[in-house]
Design brief:
The protein has 9 helices and 19 strands. With 382 residues, the protein is an alpha/beta fold. It has 2 domains: 274 residues, Aldolase class I (TIM Barrel); 102 residues, Immunoglobulin-like. The strands form 4 sheets. Strands 10-11-12-14-19-16-17 form a 7-stranded mixed β-sheet, with no helix packed on it. Strands 1-2-6-7-8-9 form a 6-stranded parallel β-sheet. It is elongated. The two termini are 43 Å apart. The relative contact order is 0.08.
Length: 382
């Protein structure tokens, strides 16, 4: 956490596994939501240590799951939408008021007692009855329709949490997000795509295009420690227009990877005004967004993910930033109007300046040598 903070990270998201010592696949130990003492003997003290480093703390919960090894599994017998033997879990029925209150109370108690800052609420899309239970009504249920009950649950969850911490962070995953979900959560994450930079790019941009001003998060970034810094950098560059989540052991990656992260995360923080809040133009969706532009009146970021020409149909602003999201060593601009004289600074993926020059951005094609996963900054000469 200390290394992450030094690189500019602001929050820790603790995923599945904090509630069990089992390394088996599945969710048989969900439902009671107490930390595994062998991993986290004192959750409040653990969160306080993270807070002391200046980081916020977000904790994962699988909302509808009660695993077969949990006390909640016995407690809520007869109040399931169904069971999934493969995952080792039952699915709670939110139409029962005591089920909803159990879940709401679980999160509210955790926030108060452990001083959590947010929740990663997962598997909301699993609230669906199995075929043999489709027609069940009554029997203590106060709502007939499952979608209506899920809406009531999430609405009440957010209201209760915001009453405790108005700035609570709530993350949802891509498989169950859409414009309606913005009333519950304030962070939307790309669907799972571990170690797949291209899929992460496509998914984060898809999320950006529907989520308005809700924060769009990349799926967790990971790579092998023996990869080159340039190859590792592509994981980050492909999600540059979203909030990156770094999921490698920072004390075990080589120094050149840390240098790469320091440079590109610094770039992201410096230019988040255009990367996250600028006018976004992901081009050619049928080709998986090979070129992405983001613009403010003062800046233009052009990220290139294949060997393609960046065509600009208007004069570039004062600051033009070209991100080489490939392992090639060039970027090609095409201008239809004059872009004026520019001071050019080229950096490699670690942020080392490899070249400076001046050039005139006249109408037509311009080839700029940029190292793999590097950056070219073209600033207008005053």
């Amino acid at each position: 956490c200390r290394l992450a903070k030094a690189l500019g990270c602001e929050a820790v998201i603790v995923d599945d596994g904090w509630q069990t010592t089992s390394n088996e696949r599945g969710y048989a130990y969900t439902g009671d939501w107490q930390p595994a003492s062998e991993k986290i003997p004192d959750m409040r003290a653990h969160v306080e240590r993270v807070h002391a480093l200046g980081l916020r703390y977000i904790l994962w919960y699988s909302v509808p799951f009660v695993g077969v090894h949990s006390a909640a599994y016995s407690r809520f017998q007869g109040k399931f939408l169904g069971e999934n033997a493969r995952l080792g879990t039952a699915i709670l029925d939110p139409r029962f008021p005591d089920v909803r209150e159990y879940l709401i109370g679980t999160y509210a108690t955790a926030m108060r007692e452990w001083d959590l800052d947010g929740f990663k609420l997962d598997f909301v899309d699993a609230f669906e009855p199995t075929p043999d239970r489709q027609g069940e009504r009554g029997g203590g249920r106060d709502i007939d329709a499952v979608p209506e009950a899920a809406d009531r649950l999430l609405t009440d969850v957010i209201a209760r949490l915001r009453a405790i911490k108005p700035d609570v962070m709530v993350e949802f995953r891509q498989s169950y997000i859409g414009p309606l979900m913005r009333k519950y959560g304030n962070m939307f994450r790309a669907g799972d795509c571990p170690n797949d930079a291209v899929e992460n790019r496509v998914r984060t941009l898809d999320v950006r295009l529907l989520c308005g001003n809700t924060a769009a998060h990349a799926d967790m970034l990971m790579w092998h420690p023996e990869e080159s810094a340039e190859s590792a950098a592509l994981q980050l560059l492909n999600v540059l227009f979203s909030v990156p989540q770094i999921s490698v052991l920072l004390d075990r990656v080589p120094p050149e990877h840390v240098a790469m992260l320091r440079f590109w995360l610094g770039f992201w923080r410096e230019h988040r005004d255009v990367l996250l809040d600028g006018q976004l133009a992901p081009l050619a969706p049928e080709a998986m967004y090979p070129v992405v532009l983001a613009r403010t009146p003062e800046k233009l970021v052009a990220a290139v993910y294949v060997d393609a020409v960046v065509a600009l149909d208007a004069p570039p602003p004062t600051l033009l930033l070209i991100v080489n999201g490939t392992l090639s060593e060039r970027a090609v601009l095409e201008l239809v109007t004059d872009g004026g004289e520019r001071e050019v600074e080229v950096r490699d993926c670690r942020g080392t300046v490899v070249r400076t020059q001046r050039m005139d951005l006249t109408p037509g094609l311009h080839r700029i040598e940029v190292p793999p996963a590097g950056l070219a900054t073209l600033r207008a000469v005053k």
